[in-house]
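#structure-requests
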Amino acid sequence: MTEEKIKNQDVAEQQGFQDGDGYPSCEGTPCDNMAGQEQDAADTMSDDDKIEEPQAEENSADENFVEPSAEEVIAVWRDKYMRLQAEFDNYRKRTLREKMDLVASGGADVIKSMLSVLDDMYRAVAASEKSDDIASLREGEKLVLHKFEEALRQKNVVEIEAMEQEFNPDFHEAVARFAAGDDKKGKIIDVVQRGYMLGDKVLRYAKVVVGE
């Protein structure tokens, strides 16, 4: 090759680089083979190995949320208050009715237990009108009295012990005081009216006379 042809070829290559077409082609070269291998690897990549680009969520919850107004909040709480008040009124009325029914049924049970004693009292009065046997009449009265006390005991009503006991203001009520000697000072020497207890509660205080 002559020197002139070499120069012309160099000028043509430089002109091609300036026009943007002078980059060497990888076709049929090792560079071309590498590009093909990369393309084959990309084609054989599984769907799980591919990186998916995040997509914007449409109609998100934040966009749909509308903050309630003050009037709406007040209306909701007013409704809850009215419902709660109505439920409490119903509960109060129901418990009051149940309490009244319990008291009525309890009183009816006590009265029912006293009816048998009342029957015995009528029989005793009828017997006293027909008989002059005082001893038998007194015996009948004692039987009625014991039956009455037993009926009270079954209802957990017991008599307060008072006679010759130390005066206790929690159970006794002093109606009088009399001199009774040093050995009976502060003690109950007489019972004017018996007292009774229902369980641990005093139904009636015993009215007593206390010695001084």
